[in-house]
Write a structure and sequence with these properties.
This protein is α+β, with helices and mostly antiparallel strands. Helix content is 60%, strand content 11%. It has a five-stranded mixed beta sheet with strand order 2-1-5-3-4. Strand 3 and strand 4 form a beta hairpin. Helix 1 runs antiparallel to helix 2. It starts with a helix and ends with a strand.
Length: 295
């Protein structure tokens, strides 16, 4: 009659009959604790509340399930003989006490289950954090590679600017030598009266040619107004692309936000195509003010 006791105990605790019968059948009638463990593990099964239909020849509390081995039968007979009529139906108080004990046991099982789920959630959170750190490391590496690429590009542009300046200086020196030779030849052929009248025109191109060389700025001071009202200011090469300014803002004040760069007057919003253009071509030399706006 053990399965009937288990079934009755589950019903006393408030379990639905369908669930109680399934638990008793699936645990092989091995006691109330096994039955409660099975119920807690399968409480979300889709068919848990459907009427339980035991397999053919196997029903809860059937004679086949209760057939015992000869040894168990002899032991049971001895127990019955020893106890006599001691095994009487439980009183109401005894039932309540048993139900109370089983409820406490079930609460302990549920607490163990919650603790296990909490530990599993902690492990999942650790995995998420680990993956997040790995992602940040990948992003940082990509950012470092981009900065290294820009630094290499700046060095290359500086070298090109240096060579260009040297070519301009060499050309100016050659022009001066040519003018000197030309002026010297004219004075020897025309005599003393012609050089005074011809000398000013020869010196005029030299004085007019110098200012354009000074206005050929190779650096650009950029002031950037951020979203919070603060400003950044630094110097770039005139041949650097606008993308260098964008990277500088990202590293020093964008806080991971996506943004646009604009000039307030005349108003112009710079596009992705503009990012590849040199600052000189965009008219930002020798100085300019850019404003950061949200995308």
């Amino acid at each position: 009659m053990a399965d009937c006791t288990t079934l009755d105990s589950l019903l006393e605790m408030g379990f639905d009959r369908n669930r109680a019968e399934r638990a008793v059948a699936h645990t092989g009638n091995q006691g109330i604790e096994r039955a409660m463990d099975w119920l807690m593990e399968h409480e979300n099964d889709p068919d848990i509340d459907e009427p339980y239909v035991p397999p053919a020849g196997n029903t809860v509390g059937s004679t086949e399930e209760q057939i015992q081995s000869p040894t168990e039968t002899s032991e049971s007979i001895e127990d019955v003989e020893q106890e006599g009529d001691a095994k009487q139906p439980m009183t109401e108080d005894e039932k309540k006490e048993q139900v109370k004990r089983l409820e406490e046991l079930m609460k302990a099982r549920q607490e163990e289950r919650r603790e296990r789920e909490r530990q599993e959630e902690i492990e999942r959170e650790k995995q998420r954090r680990k993956q997040g750190q790995e992602l940040l490391q990948v992003k940082q590496k990509l950012q470092d590679d981009e900065m290294k690429k820009l630094a290499d590009q700046r060095r290359k542009e500086k070298m090109e600017d240096k060579l260009a300046k040297q070519r301009v200086k060499d050309k100016i020196a050659r022009d001066r030598e040519e003018r000197a030779r030309k002026f010297g030849g004219g004075s020897s052929s025309t005599g003393l009266s012609s050089p005074p009248s011809e000398a000013p025109p020869e010196s005029l191109p030299e004085s007019q040619g110098a200012p354009p060389a000074k206005k050929d700025y190779d650096e650009c001071r950029i002031q950037v107004r951020l979203l919070d009202g603060t400003t950044l200011s630094t110097v770039f090469k005139a041949q650097e692309p606008l993308a260098a300014v964008r990277v500088y803002v990202q590293m020093n004040g964008a806080n991971g936000q996506d943004f646009n760069l604009i000039t307030p007057y005349p108003r112009r919003v710079y596009t992705d195509l503009d990012m590849e253009k040199p600052l000189r071509e965009l008219g930002l030399v020798p100085s300019a003010v850019l404003v950061v706006t949200k995308k």
